[in-house]
Specification:
The radius of gyration is 37 Å and the shape is elongated. It has a domain of 71 residues. With 271 residues, the protein is α+β, with helices and mostly antiparallel strands. It starts with a strand and ends in a 12-residue tail after the last helix. A hairpin with a 2-residue loop joins β6 and β7. It is built from 8 helices and 10 strands. The strands form 3 sheets. The chain has a 5-stranded antiparallel β-sheet with strand order 1-5-4-3-2, covered by helices on one side. It has a 3-stranded antiparallel β-sheet with strand order 6-7-8.
Length: 271
């Protein structure tokens, strides 16, 4: 859920704001969301007037989630009015009964009857409200549309020149996913973005770690094809597993697995 800050937005020098088009088909399209060239979002509605929205996070990117409502159809509107009528009528009856109870001239017998009537009306009201609220909730869920926007894509769509058909990816030039300033964004093709990602510090670091791991692994991999060929020749000549493990500086289990063809099975013994 979006977190709204409690301070009005103050624009930075050179920061530009544009209205996000939410769609005229929604009933709350009169509410306004604005995106800035710095990648900030602010909201305007009955409660907030230009307040910043932090947004949410997904895969390291900042994302804007907001809820819109489709218009209610005529049949549903009539059904809601039909279900609401008994609620209003019962509330009116309760007001009338309470007013009668406040009359100091009524007898005790009338007071008891009115109290029972009030209790009955309250039960009826609760049942009518239950039916109305259940239908209203079902309609509310049906009309609700949740929309998600990646903020860096919004900035690109509103502040960068229209891309070509092939340029579908918005890349961060400095590889910082949270730096959504328009100056840090660029439309790229999939191939361009793939090349760009290779210059990312995290990718370079991972590549270095992987390379060092391979070198470490290779340095500690004691047996080679040539060694295994010679080792098998010695096994065929009757050398003991214990002596071969000591000679080749490997475990006796590894020598046993080679003898049983579990490891290095495709390598033949030297002639």
């Amino acid at each position: 859920m979006n977190n709204i800050l409690n301070t009005n937005t103050r624009s930075f020098a050179g920061e530009e704001w544009k209205k996000i088009h939410l769609g005229e088909e929604f009933t709350n399209s009169d509410s306004r969301l604005e995106i800035s060239s710095w990648g900030r979002i602010r909201t305007f509605n009955k409660v907030n007037s230009g307040k910043l929205i932090n947004g949410s996070m997904i895969n390291g990117y900042r994302i804007l989630r907001h809820r819109m409502f489709k218009a209610r159809d005529a049949d549903t509107e009539k059904k809601l009015e039909f279900l609401k009528a008994p609620v209003l009528a019962t509330e009116k009856n309760i007001v009338a009964v309470k007013k009668s109870l406040r009359n100091k001239n009524i007898s005790k017998e009338e007071q008891v009857l009115l109290t029972k009537q009030l209790d009955a009306e309250i039960l009826i009201l609760a049942e009518n409200k239950k039916i109305y609220n259940a239908f209203y909730k079902k309609d509310y869920i049906k009309r609700t549309v949740y929309i998600n926007h990646l903020i860096h894509r919004l900035v690109a769509e509103y502040f960068l020149p229209k891309p070509s058909a092939e340029q579908k990816v918005v890349a961060h030039l400095d590889h910082d996913k949270l730096n959504n300033n328009v100056s840090n964004l660029r439309w790229m093709t999939a191939i361009e973005n793939s090349k760009h990602q290779q210059t990312s510090p995290s990718v370079i670091s991972e590549r270095k770690v992987r390379k060092e791991h391979i070198h470490y692994y290779a340095a500690n991999f004691k047996l080679t094809v040539t060694k295994v060929m010679f080792l098998k020749k010695l096994l065929n000549e009757g050398k003991t597993i214990k002596s071969l493990a000591k000679q080749f500086k490997v475990s006796e289990t590894q020598i046993l697995n080679i003898k049983k063809e579990k490891n290095w099975g495709s390598v033949e013994a030297a002639k």
